[in-house]
Amino acid sequence: MNEDISDERGFPFGMLDPSAPVRFEIDGMECASLDGFVQSLKFERIKDQKNITKRVGNDAKKRGKDKDTAANQKADRILWWQGESFKRNSKKHKNLLARVFREMARNPRYQEALMATQDSDFTHSKGKSFQKDTLLTRKELIDNLKELRAELKAGFKQGF
Hints:
Blueprint: E1 2-4, E2 24-26, E3 29-31, H1 34-40, H2 46-53, H3 57-65, E4 78-81, E5 84-87, H4 91-104, H5 108-116, E6 121-123, H6 138-157
Parallel strand pairs: 1-6
Antiparallel strand pairs: 2-3, 4-5
Helix pairs in contact: 1-2, 1-3
């Protein structure tokens, strides 16, 4: 059964929405939500990134939207993390996203939500499909969630 990941849903699927308040830390940077982290990638200055990573949901999106111009709305746009630039489609970007999901899984409530989905297939009706339109496509969100869930299940079976 396909379950929609949406902040309008209750636990567990609402908790997996990028706009949900999920505290985590990556590379020493405190984040309040996945949206806050993703939007921060649009900002070159670390000071600005720290400000954006503390945001949740629409507040984070609104701050990032100011950086969305025709010139940078493309699949290979330049992003930044902690003073280093990289392209949207780069291996560095994919690896950073995977690390973010692993760090989010350190949040016990997020991990509980992901494991509570059991073997459900996911959809994300509010998400966008094209990389030129978003920094986290539906497919990227769903693929990362499924991969993380599989890793967690394997870890639990091994006694971790």
